[in-house]
Amino acid sequence: MSETDPRRWKALIFIALAQLMVVLDATIVNIALPSAQQDLGISDGNRQWVITAYALAFGGLLLFGGRIADLWGRKRTFVTGLIGFAAASALGGAATGEAMMLGARALQGVFGALLAPAALSLLAVMFTDAKERAKAFGIYGAIAGGGGAVGLILGGFLTEYLNWRWTFFVNIPFAVVAALGAYFVIREPAGGRNRSPLDIPGVVLSTLGLVALVYGFTRAESAGWSDSLTVGMFVGSAVLLAAFVLTEAKVKSPLLPLRVLTERNRGGVYLSLGLAIIAMFGLFLFLTYYLQIVQGFSPVKTGFAFLPMIVGMIVGSTQIGARLMTRVAPRLLMGPGFVLAAVGMLLLTQLEVGSSYAGLIMPAQLMLGLGMGTAFMPAMSLATHGVEARDSGVASAMVNTSQQVGGAIGTALLNTIAASATTAYVASHAAGATTPAAQKLMQAEAMVEGYTSAIWWAVGILVAAAAIAFALINTGAQGGSPAASGDTDGAENSKDEVRIPVVAH
Fold it and tell me: What is the largest CA-CA distance in the chain?
């Protein structure tokens, strides 16, 4: 085993700071979007592209970014990603029109796809002791998991008290501090690079396949599931990704070695976490709309209303998951964690127009945060179960990719369910709403009916995630040797074994 890096805890600060910036960006722009749209004259039809341009570039290029980190060196890829992300953010903040804004968002996605896998794999190869790794991933997971809600608070402050442009400019100091810190503090362990030639057909097929998949779900939300282009995107994505799998099985140096996907425990982690992200993304969206539109919260107040979820996630990650993951089998943390989150989600199916925040929303969020934090921690350790250090970048990218696709599915699927339920409610209650006040109340009730219908689906999805974790994940506690923990790759690989965390993005 390589000697422990004495500066690893300092390095964790800069790695976590960089990931916080990427996670913040996922929600901070949502809050600024209405103001930016008005200033730049972006049409309602094109408004979604401010979010979609980033998601397509980020989701489509993650596997490529992970392979570049393995090939080029994680530290170099990490610093390059940070500098590029800062430059793209400056361009977004200075945007004078629609084209400049969309270009900046796509560039942010490109550099984010370099940055995220490099950050995760750096963390994994620097922390080799099981207990230290649990602690580091606990801190990292809590920061990354809570980052989305922090983005809502920060986005609300910047948009209300300064200007929407600061939601972009705020990335620059984050990126500069993280890049300088990484350059001077991080020392990448030797011998972890994969210098095999780049699998160009794999890069092209995976990028096009993932872009088509993410765009298909994004388009389904606005144009409907039966729209010809939506269906065409799904069919095209299936063909491209099937061709990608066939290519990876045959080429000498694949972009994504299929053994990364086919090991039972890794498969269980990818599936269960992907499902959990679908449920969580939908919830963030509906709760934001509910608090702002139905309850009339300001953007800043909405951000603070998410604090119980952050607290729950931090406690679940650092005090439950990180403390128990070296002693308890992962499925005994992941399964109950997802069940607890499902119970929190079940509470939210009781939402009404005048629901109490303290009586209903706050305890539901605490349960969700606690459950997710507890489940994410062992998953972070298990996500690259037995993967060698030279494949750690691409394995980390695979986890991020499942999250990006999960996020796109969650937003599109649950939004569609909510919209259908709202429309049905309006159709059946419109005749009874004869005064302006009654019509306004009926509209609010219709919205809440839509949200609760979708949240019921999210409950079912979390229960499915728990069932998959219980059924597929069969390895032991992660504190011992690979052989002791049920690692089928054998003890001879223990020096190369790395654990890569997953981030709630």
Answer: 75
Spatial separation of the C-alpha atoms in residues 207 and 220, rounded to whole Å: 20
pLDDT in tens, 216-241: 887 877 777 888 999 999 999 999 99
- Other beta carbons within 10 angstroms of residue 345's beta carbon come to 26
Q: What is the pTM of this model?
A: 0.79
Of 107, 81, 79, 78, give the one whose Cα is nearest residue 92: 107
Query: What is the reported pLDDT for 449?
Result: 93
The residue to which tokens 């128990």 are assigned: 324
Q: How many helices (H) and strands (E) does the chain have?
A: 19, 0
**Contact status, residue 384 vs residue 396, Cβ threshold 8 Å:** yes
Q: Dihedral angle at the C-alpha atoms of 24, 30, 35, 36, nearest 10 degrees? A: 80
Phi-psi region of 486 (alpha: psi -120 to 50; beta: other; left: phi over 0): left
Q: Where do the DSSP E strands lie in 386-439?
A: none
Calculated CA dihedral for residues 205, 384, 20, 8, nearest 10 degrees:
-130
Q: Give, rounded to a whole angstrom, the gap between the first and last alpha carbons of the chain.
A: 32
DSSP H or E stretch at residue 347: helix 331-348
Answer for the pair 164, 158: CB distance below 8 angstroms, yes or no.
yes
- Whether 469 contacts 340, CB under 8 Å: no
